[in-house]
């Protein structure tokens, strides 16, 4: 278990401020970005489409069973799919076979691995992922019409060299049922687009009659605590695949002496098993019916996999091209003049925002940065003029429009937080459509409907040569919808931006604080992710901002006539093609001038399972640091430990991307840290102050209901959230007391025979 102690960290900081060893020098940032993008793009076309693979594999399994096993054995056949990680066998350090690559399909591993050395399968998931997956399934089909049923099992299992195992109930661990399990087929599946790989196993299980005591010579003793979930309807939430979540404590064999000789090893395992009745019916079907059932089984297995082990669908490497500073290195050429011009524009932004300027060589990213929302900040938001928006799960960029450089035509560029520069499809056309000098703040996000990226604009820093940073946010927001987007649409109509061949530009939707309910209504759960889906008419939103004749009355849209013509009502698909992407929280934007760097009045809130911290990590030897101002860095290696499975993923990702900044999450429920992803767009880890405020955010644990309730109060003085929660807690205790008394009364009546 990895814990975080503030006292320990402060002591560690004091001991390291005097002298810290110098951090390993990373590759030049442009080279890192180029390698990361090229590797990601190279992987993008590999692998097989998941449903196609699963359907083909299940058909192969069915054919094998029918051809090689007699019908009398069919009732004893088990088909299981287990999550885990495949690593190169024999390597000095366990490292996942494939690093993370969004958009890559399924890759089947042969006996000797995928064109490499043999692989080893590490079954299980991290404890943090285990609890999150389990909670996700436990929340399905709740209420009166629930479709998922949970059951629990606690047993002790002894395994022997002859492939037999003794299963003893925990309440009677001295004896149990003896059975043998013979593997028929293992299908090893690498899933580079997900956190975990998959092993599909076909086995035959035979149970011997009678109760057997513990025999000497066991190889391992496994204590299992299992929670199983089954679909009550068979074709609704989970379908024909039951789910087992098992906590396993393993002790090495006794060597014939009756006592274990090894240390306990703990693991958390997740497996899906095809229901026996469904398997029997599938084997008995033939022809077209069998094919349909195979497709159904593959589809439901994939649905469950996506819920537990989400597949990332795409990588920015398919869209962006790094701008290299020297010709012949790769990427877009001619970068040096562009880099200098962009540094000057960054200096202009800083100067206009009152933060200096000059465009020096060591300039930092000028974009504003929010701080974590804690309970002490809620009153500030309630009392001030704030705009709210969903916190998009994308990659942050500034978009610059530059006039002709070196007699070339105007173009546009993206700059990330590491100051790396990229070009993109339609960059020249966008540069010709928007006035030179324009600077937009936004992020690159993946649209789940169109399966493509869009640039989501959430602020306008310069409109041409006109600085906007000194204006309140409400005016900058109107500028996006009244200036930027109309001119962009004119560029599309005029042929400068060809449909399907340019990066679409979309304006982010912001809402007034009291309308936070509208925002949360648009957040849905899909395939293990939270997504923001907005089907609302865009013309109606312009009226919400005071920019058009379209109005809302009593929550419904009304069309006003102007010169005998109605305003355009946007089709749902057009709206979703703009707003259908992953989200991980809410941002609270103050209605004041733009502030470069950290803005302590600009807040962000995230669902607890998405709260993360960016650390600089060295996997071998393991070392974790955060930023510490003048001290350089603060060593947190003792406080922040990753589980072995996460280290396997981290090593593979770092080997492929040459990036040292990793995003880690922390589970308050389990006390474990979890590796999420690399951050090639960053060169520095979060500072120690950010680490502390993030841990405070986790400790406070403000959930969605609290945020929504407290944002809808009129003034801070009207906030009675604490009182409401206290009353409900007391009511819950009262209900439980009445329930206990009622149970006692019923028992007494039964005993008295009343």
Q: What are the low-pLDDT stretches, counting only 5+ consecutive residues below 50?
A: 1-45, 326-331, 550-566
Strand content: 25-35%
What's the total count of β strands?
A: 34
The spatial strand order of the largest sheet comes to: 1-7-6-5-4-8-9-10
What is the alpha-carbon Rg in Å? 29 Å
Mean pLDDT: 84
Structural class: alpha+beta
Observed structural traits:
alpha+beta; 8-stranded antiparallel beta barrel; globular; disordered N terminus
Short description:
The protein is an alpha+beta fold and 754 residues long. The protein contains 17 helices and 34 strands. Helix content is 30%, strand content 31%.
Description:
With 754 residues, the chain is of the alpha+beta class. Helices cover 30% and strands 31% of the residues. It has 17 helices and 34 strands. The strands form six sheets. The protein has an eight-stranded antiparallel β-barrel with strand order 1-7-6-5-4-8-9-10, surrounded by four helices. Strand 14 (395-402) and strand 15 form a beta hairpin. It is globular. The model is unreliable at 1-45, 326-331 and 550-566 (pLDDT under 50).
């Amino acid at each position: 278990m990895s814990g975080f102690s503030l006292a320990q960290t402060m002591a560690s900081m004091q001991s390291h401020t005097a002298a810290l060893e110098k951090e390993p020098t990373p590759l030049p940032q442009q080279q890192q970005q180029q390698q990361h993008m090229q590797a990601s793009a190279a992987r993008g076309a590999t692998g097989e489409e998941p449903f196609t693979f699963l359907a083909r594999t299940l058909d192969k399994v069915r054919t094998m069973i029918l051809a090689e096993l007699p019908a009398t054995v069919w009732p004893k056949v088990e088909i299981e799919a287990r999550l885990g990680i495949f690593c190169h066998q024999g390597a000095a350090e366990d490292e996942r076979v494939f690093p993370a690559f969004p958009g890559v399909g399924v890759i089947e591993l042969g006996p000797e691995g995928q064109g490499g050395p043999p692989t080893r399968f590490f079954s299980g998931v991290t404890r943090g992922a285990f609890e999150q997956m389990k909670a996700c399934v436990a929340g399905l089909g709740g209420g009166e019409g629930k479709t998922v049923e949970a059951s629990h099992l606690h047993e002790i299992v002894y395994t022997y060299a002859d492939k037999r195992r003794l299963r003893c109930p925990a309440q009677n661990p001295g004896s149990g049922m003896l059975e043998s399990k013979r593997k028929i087929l293992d299908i090893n599946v690498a899933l580079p687009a997900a956190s975990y790989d998959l092993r599909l196993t076909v086995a035959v299980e035979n149970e011997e009659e009678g109760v057997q005591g513990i025999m000497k010579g066991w190889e391992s003793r496994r204590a299992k605590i299992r929670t199983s979930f089954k679909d009550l309807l068979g074709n609704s939430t989970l379908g024909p695949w039951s789910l087992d979540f098992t906590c396993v404590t393993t002790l090495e064999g006794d060597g014939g002496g009756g006592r274990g000789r090894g240390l306990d090893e703990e693991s958390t395992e997740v497996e899906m098993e095809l229901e026996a009745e469904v398997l029997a019916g599938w084997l008995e079907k033939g022809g077209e019916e069998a094919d349909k059932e195979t497709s159904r089984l593959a589809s439901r297995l994939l649905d469950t996999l996506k819920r537990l082990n989400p597949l990332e669908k795409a990588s920015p490497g398919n869209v962006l091209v790094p701008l290299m500073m020297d010709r012949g290195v790769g990427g877009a050429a001619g970068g040096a003049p562009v880099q200098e011009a962009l540094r000057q524009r960054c200096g202009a932004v800083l100067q206009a925002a009152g933060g200096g300027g000059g465009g020096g060589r060591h300039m930092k990213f000028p974009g504003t940065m929010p701080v974590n929302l804690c309970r002490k900040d809620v009153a500030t938001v309630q009392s001030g003029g704030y705009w709210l928006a969903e916190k998009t799960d994308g990659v942050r960029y500034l978009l610059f429009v530059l006039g002709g450089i070196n007699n070339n035509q105007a173009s546009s560029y993206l700059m990330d937080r590491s100051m790396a520069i990229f070009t993109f499809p339609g960059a020249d056309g966008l540069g010709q459509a928007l006035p030179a000098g324009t600077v937009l703040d936004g992020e690159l996000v993946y649209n789940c409907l169109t399966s493509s990226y869009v640039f989501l604009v959430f602020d306008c820093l310069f409109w041409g040569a006109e600085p906007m940073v000194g204006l309140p946010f409400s005016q900058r927001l109107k500028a996006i919808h009244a200036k930027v987007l109309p001119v962009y649409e004119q560029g599309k109509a005029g042929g400068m931006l060809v449909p399907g061949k340019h990066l679409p530009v979309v304006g982010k939707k912001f809402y007034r604080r009291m309308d936070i309910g509208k925002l949360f209504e648009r957040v849905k759960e899909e395939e293990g992710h939270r997504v923001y889906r907005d089907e609302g008419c865009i013309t109606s939103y312009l009226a919400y901002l005071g920019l058009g004749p379209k109005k809302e009355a009593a929550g419904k849209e009304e069309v006003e006539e102007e010169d005998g013509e109605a305003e355009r009502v946007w089709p749902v698909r057009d709206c979703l093609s703009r707003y259908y992407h992953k989200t991980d929280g809410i941002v609270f934007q103050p209605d004041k001038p733009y502030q470069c760097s950290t803005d302590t009045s600009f807040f962000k809130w995230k669902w607890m399972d998405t709260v993360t911290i960016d650390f600089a990590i060295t996997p071998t030897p393991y070392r974790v640091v955060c930023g510490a101002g003048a001290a350089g860095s603060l060593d947190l290696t003792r406080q922040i430990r990753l589980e072995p499975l996460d280290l396997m993923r981290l090593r593979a990702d770092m080997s492929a991307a040459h990036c040292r900044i990793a995003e880690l999450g922390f589970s308050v429920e389990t006390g474990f840290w979890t590796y999420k992803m690399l951050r090639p767009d960053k060169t520095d880890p979060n500072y120690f102050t950010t680490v502390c405020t993030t841990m405070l955010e986790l400790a406070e644990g403000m959930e969605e209901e609290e945020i929504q309730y407290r944002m809808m109060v009129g003034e801070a003085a009207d906030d009675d959230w604490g009182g409401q929660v206290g009353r409900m807690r007391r009511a819950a205790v009262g209900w439980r007391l009445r329930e206990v008394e009622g149970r006692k009364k019923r028992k007494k009546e039964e005993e008295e025979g009343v």
